[in-house]
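S.,

Sequence below, as promised.
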Amino acid sequence: MGLGKSSLSRTSAVLVGAVVVISILIGAVLAVRGATGADEWSPESGAVPAQAGDGPGSLCGIPGLADSGGLTTAPEAEWRYQGTTAYPVSRDHGPGRIAPEGFRYCFQHTPEGALFAAANAVVQGSNGEAVAEWIEYATADGPYRSTLIANDGTPADQSDTRSNIVGFRILQYSGVAAHVDIAVRLSMPEGTVFGSGVYDLVWAEGDWKMSTASPEPVSMALIPDLAGYVPWGEAWSGNA
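The prediction came back faster than expected:
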């Protein structure tokens, strides 16, 4: 079923960490609300360090370091839900910590860690009570940081919309920066569309954070299909 212009405008969403939540820019902003579900293994709760060095290791001690590389196969992940959207967790790749406010942070300094950071950013802003705190933490220093923090916005109701991560591409990885493309499926009463969000990440203070070197740390677009993406998501794990 096709989507009309008014439906496209209504069904947009934010894919970014700073203004943040999943979504595809079609015209407006949608956001997922909900609470993090419990499971057998969870990241440890702990206070977010006020300052941390820019050294190679993660601030919570997750081992692993890669100065280059990519991913052509999907890493194993345990998929949990925040509201109606699944997000990945991994002992090896992160997130390794949950802040007292409820947001997840601390990822491995590898392509896998960057991928898990971007995928968690898709739903990280959905907790209305923790959006401001998460944005404050998840944006690196840069010329547009204060602007992005000021424009965090308010999550909109999308009770009739379901968002699912369905694939990824690592477009660039250098150890100090990563461009991670997350493919998302948006299902609505009017039909289904696919969107792409390319996250511009930098390694800062022992974690992957959103770059604020430009006013748009996430490039968003509609895509016709999932050609070229590595399939990845809760549906691909066999648990759908």
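The two ends are 23 Å apart (CA to CA).

Coffee later?
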